[in-house]
Amino acid sequence: MATVNKAILLGYVGKEPEVRYVDTGVCVAQVRLATTERGYTLQNGTEVPERTEWHNVIFWRKLGERVEKYVHKGDLIYVEGKIQSRSYDDRQGITRHITEIWADELKLFSPKSSEAETT
Question: Which residues have a Cβ under 8 Å from the Cβ of 104 and sit 6 or more positions away?
Fold first, then answer.
């Protein structure tokens, strides 16, 4: 039986993308993306507050180049990709675990990026 690893996010970019080039000029861009669930009130009057989740999204090659050119803090973007988890040792030798979305698709919804095509 086949399995599925797919994430679909629509959210706002929290800070300017971090872009770097590795190996033989391969572009890698990282974006912090915020998705928010609205708050609501239960029938018994209990208020459930708004909740924002932050996602680390990684864009490779052409998608990374598009992020570098068109994506900025505050932009609304749509991302499809797969969930990847990894761990690393920080400078103090403490093992850290991180979950990232490796993007396969990017759509830009901010008015200033209307000239950018989608993938």
Answer: 80, 81, 82
